[in-house]
Design goal:
- Chain B: This is Protein prenylyltransferase.
- Chain B: GO terms for molecular function: protein prenyltransferase activity.
- The complex is a heterodimer of chains A (328) and B (394).
- Chain A is mostly helical and 328 residues long.
- Helix content of chain A is 45%, strand content 2%.
- Chain A contains 14 helices and four strands.
- Chain A has helices spanning 8-17, 25-29, 34-47, 56-65, 84-96, 105-114, 132-144, 153-162, 180-192, 201-209, 229-240, 249-258, 277-289, 306-311, and strands at residues 67-68, 73-74, 298-299, 304-305.
- Chain A has a two-stranded antiparallel ribbon with strand order 1-2. A two-stranded antiparallel sheet of chain A has the order 3-4.
- In chain A, α3 runs parallel beside α13 and α5 packs parallel to α7 (132-144).
- Chain B has a domain at 1-165.
- Helices cover 63% and strands 3% of the residues of chain B.
- Chain B has 17 helices and three strands.
- In chain B, strands 1-3-2 form a three-stranded mixed beta sheet.
- In chain B, β2 and β3 form a beta hairpin.
- In chain B, α1 (2-20) crosses α2 (57-75), α11 (229-243) packs parallel to α13 (280-295) and α13 (280-295) packs antiparallel against α14.
- Chain B is globular, with a radius of gyration of 25 Å.
- Classes of the chains: A mainly alpha (328), B mainly alpha (394).
- Chains A and B meet through α2 and α10 of A and α2, α6, α9, α11 and α13 of B.
């Protein structure tokens, strides 16, 4: 199954084929995250240098068909309720396609800001589920929309501070266990807000480096299995904090490549499992940060192509590994 | 065409009614009916044995696909559109803590007809969507609207969420489903979990027995899906509800029961760790609760004393476990966390020091994992304890 290099053409084809299985059960079972899935597929294509592999107009049309006019935001699928998760993915897709003018920025800004709770955390939608993921999403989205100045930064940061644990890591809510995914969102949100001083960097980077297992893969929490998606979340935080060297990058690169499906294309959570677009996206993102040859730079704070974020003047002080040339 | 529409409708309603009869449990069975259900049995393709409902996965997915279009059709009906406009953003229905007495309820809500066919299919379809795919936010939101308007009974939704959470691995770990349960709990018990940080004047609470039921449920969900992040989160949210009553000046202060509760919870989590020695989530929970009592402001002296006693027990417990199972990273991190907390509250790490010194000295005789864990602990001590390299350490 494994191969020693990235099978870009196969992965591009895998992503292109995703829309062809509309009658499959899995298509129905994932409708609630379709907008996210399109963002994952598009970003992976961009990093692999094949943005044109999916039709731009069709994609923009799909995004707009998910507009929930009552809420002033986007759902994951037509007839699905608006949510902050799908709203960010919609914004990221439109930004990537240089089509942000299609959005009613005022209304979307209003929707996002309305989700901030008294404690400073953000809810996912009007029903009130809270999670530091949603704080990051709000900060990221407002930043891409050019409306970050309307955010109460102190309030937002104060809740993230409450989620900092004794091990230096972050959980999804105050008192919750440190988790690599939650570390990513808290660090990235603090990076956008220029508040990395809130992080206990020695403890956190130590905790992050302990995510690497003997097989080279990274896990999300102590004594859990390795999973390709943590290649991004852990690396993003380390790259933002300038400590990418604390991970063995050769071993991690080999691990990600070994999780490829060499027949059908795609990347799975670990070698031998079923691939999916989520793991392709985060595997490619991780490889880009590790300097894998032939890939486009990825901004680890926004998890989008770096050139786009730079052009918008939003780049923060992160450091990826230098891009190796082919054959090295 | 209409007959196939009726068939899909029927399948959705059939399974939904079986579920609505509140069987003892629901289990999703691998494969299809042929593996589990005799063709002539009463509820074919489902199995109902001594009140336990078994739903073959392939049958569930067939009905799921039908439920998707049934749900979409119901959403477009006038009755459901009216329901949605009365339960939209800004209405009192979204806040879980707003238990609105009947006299103050929006009278248009009371006018919804539970027998309206579109309302019935919304209820049935959302039941199937939530069971097979509890990540389906829109289905859960529909149910919240139905609960807000009294068209689904909140207590029966407590039954339903428990049944779904415990029926399969992918259900037990679903964040949105745990949140949905807390939303319903808040309405049923008139309490406020305080997750949004709002300073409610009257922060209600749950009865101790109800809290314990939630902790037991979280534990069961962790058996279904080990290291269940959202089950542990649910557990800590419920514990914090009780902890708030330990704070001096709380209108619920009645110190004795709160203290008993904390001791009971610490005992239960230590017992859990004893049989789940790699479970760092349990370790984090235990340490988190201790840290809250010992380091947060506002706890009365009695509570802090209990906290110190519990910390001493954690020192013994972690030391003993790491000697017995030195290959488990989670236990070394238990030692680190307890060690660090002891130093923070000016207690000596005492016996922990001995346990770790012995292990460090003998690590060469143990497995690779033990040698690695011991080495990491040694480095951690150097950097974070001796040299004070961390902002958190004294």
């Amino acid at each position: 199954m494994a191969d020693s290099h990235l099978l870009i053409d196969k992965h591009v084809q895998y992503i292109q084929n995703l829309g062809n299985s509309k009658d499959d059960l899995s298509y129905h079972m994932t409708a609630h995250l379709r907008m996210n899935a399109i963002y994952w597929g598009l970003t992976a294509l961009c990093i692999m240098g094949h943005k044109e592999a999916l039709d731009r107009e069709e994609m923009i049309e799909y995004v707009m068909s998910c507009w929930d006019d009552e809420a002033g935001a986007f759902g994951a699928h037509p007839d699905h309720d608006a949510h902050i998760l799908s709203t960010l993915s919609a914004i990221q897709i439109l930004v990537t396609h240089d089509a942000l003018d299609r959005i009613d920025v005022d209304r979307v800004t209003k929707f996002i800001l309305s989700l901030q709770q008294p404690s400073g955390v953000f809810a996912g939608d009007m029903w009130g589920e809270i999670d530091t993921r949603f704080s990051y999403i709000a900060v990221n989205a407002l930043s891409l929309l050019g409306r970050l100045s309307e955010l109460d930064v102190e309030k937002t940061v104060s809740y993230i501070r409450q989620c900092r644990n004794y091990d230096g890591g972050f959980g999804n809510t105050a008192g919750a266990e440190s988790h690599s995914g939650q570390v990513f969102v808290c660090v990235a949100a603090l990076a956008i807000l220029d508040r990395l001083d809130e992080i206990d960097q020695p403890s956190l980077c130590w905790w992050l480096s302990e995510r690497q297992l003997p097989n080279g893969g990274l896990n999300g929490r102590p004594e859990k299995l390795e999973d390709v998606c943590y290649s991004f979340w852990v690396l993003s935080a380390l790259s933002t904090l300038g400590k990418l060297s604390w991970i063995d990058s050769d071993k991690l690169t080999k691990f990600i490549l070994s999780a490829q499906d060499t027949d059908r294309g795609g990347i799975a959570d670990r070698p031998g499992d079923e691939p999916d677009v989520f793991h392709i996206h985060f595997g490619i993102a991780g490889l880009s940060l590790l300097g894998y040859p032939g890939l486009v730079d990825l901004d680890p704070v926004y998890c989008m192509p770096a050139p786009i974020i730079e052009k918008m003047g939003l780049r923060k002080g992160w450091k990826a590994l230098p891009r190796r040339t082919l054959g090295v | 065409m209409s007959s196939s529409a009726n068939i899909s409708h029927h399948d959705v309603e059939t399974l939904a009614s079986l579920i609505a009869s509140q069987p003892e449990s629901i289990e999703i069975l691998p494969g299809d009916a042929s593996a589990w259900v005799p063709p002539d049995s009463e509820h074919h393709p489902y199995l109902l044995v001594e009140g336990n409902l078994g739903v073959p996965q392939k049958e569930l997915y067939k009905v799921y696909v039908q439920a998707v279009s049934v749900f979409a059709r119901a959403r477009r009906s006038d009755a459901v559109k009216a329901l949605y406009s009365c339960t939209g953003a800004g209405s009192r229905s979204t806040s879980s803590s707003a238990i609105t007495p009947p006299s103050q309820r929006d009278t248009t809500l009371a006018a919804f007809d539970a027998q309206d066919p579109s309302i019935r299919t919304l209820i049935a379809a959302s039941t199937i969507l939530a069971l097979a795919n509890p990540a389906h936010q829109t289905a859960l939101s529909a149910r919240r609207r139905l609960i807000s308007s009294g068209l689904i009974d909140a207590r029966s939704e407590l039954w339903f969420t428990r049944a779904v959470l415990l029926c399969a691995r992918h259900c037990a770990k679903e964040a949105g489903l745990w949140f949905h349960r807390r939303w319903v709990l808040a309405r049923v018990h008139g309490c406020d979990f305080g997750e949004d940080g709002a300073r409610s004047e009257k922060m209600g609470t749950m009865e101790m027995a109800d809290v314990k039921r939630e902790l037991e449920m979280a534990g069961r969900a962790c058996e279904v899906y080990p290291r269940n992040y959202f089950a542990w989160m649910h557990r800590v949210v419920c514990v914090r509800l009780v902890l708030s009553s330990l704070r001096a000046g709380s209108e619920h202060a009645g110190g004795g029961r709160g203290v008993e509760f904390v001791q009971g919870e610490m005992r239960d989590v230590r017992a859990w760790i004893d049989v789940h020695v790699g479970d760092y989530s349990a370790v984090h929970h235990l340490v988190s609760v201790l840290r809250a009592i010992l380091l947060d402001e506002g706890f009365d002296a009695g509570a802090v004393e209990v906290g110190k006693r519990e910390l001493e027990m954690a020192v013994e417990h972690s030391g003993g476990l790491v000697r017995a199972y030195p290959g488990h990273e989670a236990l070394w991190m238990y030692v680190r966390a307890v060690y660090a907390l002891a130093l923070e509250v000016d207690m000596s790490p005492g016996s922990l020091e001995d346990a770790t010194v012995d292990l460090l000295a003998s690590s060469g005789d143990h497995s690779e994992e033990t040698a690695w864990n011991a080495g990491q602990f040694g480095k951690w001590k150097e950097v974070f304890v001796r040299k004070g390299g961390s902002g958190i350490m004294p």
